[in-house]
Amino acid sequence: MHLPLRPLRLRLTAWYVGSFAAILLVVGFGMYWVTAQEVEAQLGRTLAAATAEVVRAAKVAEGEGVSSAEAARGAVEVIEVPGSNLYLFDARGQVLTAGMPRARVREAAAEALRDGSVEGSFQAAGGVWRLHARRFSLGDRRSYVAVSVADLAQVEAQSLRLIETFVAGAFVALLMVAFVGHHLVEISVRPVEAAYEEMRRFLADAAHELRTPVAVLRARAEVALQRERAPAEYRGALTEVGREAEVMGRIVDDLLILARVETGVREVMKEPVYLDDLVSGAAASAGVLAESRGVRLEVGDFDEAGVAGDPALLRQLLLILLQNAVKYTPRGGAVRVDVHSRGGAPTVVVEDTGMGIGPGELPHVFERFYRGEQARGVTEGAGLGLSIARRIVTGHGARIDVRSAPGRGTRVTVVFPPGGVRSG
């Protein structure tokens, strides 16, 4: 049973995990790109703030009587920005601070002397650097350029840490998705498995029930054809064949009704109909069977009870209940049917004085092809009647209840939802 659906479970789980992994990949790449851009932009703002701080500190020092060159040089030496280097150039492009700036830094200083400020990135020493250069003048009108430079490796390191954290979290999330996805797949596939098992059991039971009449038909035909026989013998054999064919026909008809109702091929109509009228017709039909078996069929309470339902299916339901009651009631017994709307809920009650149903068998009476041990010896049947009845009842939003005790008869109650049809 589980083997045919195992690949489906695995495929659905893999689809869940794969889809989530693709989403994580897109989100992770987007986060990496956005974060890298933001960190790089933040680094650019930090470098710009560093050069602005150099200018501010230099003007403060000059206001305290320090020469412009010393004030600018001192400001560069005092200000520290973690992970970056500060350089000071004069108007001739000469570096006034310690260290040997790269060629691109010198070029940026020259551009800043001309344009006022320069920012950007450049490659050097196997890495990518970002710089910000700013020209400023002090009280003596001399021009200087402050250049702040930082290695973008710190940006890459932050981004790498982000990716590592994200990958670790994504791995845990994928494990959770795999677990939860598998659980959801199990829940989703469960109705399919139940339907598959029900179909398998249905086919097995149908084959079992049809096997006996088919075997009898074949045996009687073979016996009849083994030698020449008198016309009376052939008529007897054909009569037996016809009887078995009738049994097969009833089983097939019941199977078709059940299959159509269950699969929705036979749509349950909802039109105004009165149960008392349907019960009257069904009782007349079942009365013929009751008379032939010496069973008294009584109609008790007969109130007007309107429902919204399918007339053909409801008549089938009533016939099943009445015929079952008659078949399992011994000669001299009685079957009573009542129709009422007490409490506003249309109700049909079929009660007999038959052999009853044991407590161990009662929970199984609505199962397909189920027949109790005692019932098998009383009358023929495939055990589909109450299964069809329950499907019809369910299709009408009603409920069916069976109460019984061995030797004390059976009482079947069908209660329909109130408000189906308003009289007037």
Task: Tell me about this structure.
The protein has helices spanning 6-63, 68-78, 103-115, 153-225, 231-263, 275-293, 311-327, 373-376, 385-395; strands at residues 84-90, 117-124, 127-137, 143-151, 271-274, 296-302, 306-309, 334-340, 347-352, 399-404, 410-415. It is an alpha+beta fold and 424 residues long. It folds into 2 domains: 3-159, Beta-Lactamase (2-Layer Sandwich); 269-415, Heat Shock Protein 90 (2-Layer Sandwich). The strands form 3 sheets. A 5-stranded mixed sheet has the order 6-8-9-11-10, covered by helices on one side. The protein has a 4-stranded antiparallel sheet with strand order 1-4-3-2, with helices on both faces. The protein has a two-stranded antiparallel ribbon with strand order 5-7. It is rod-shaped. The mean pLDDT is 79.
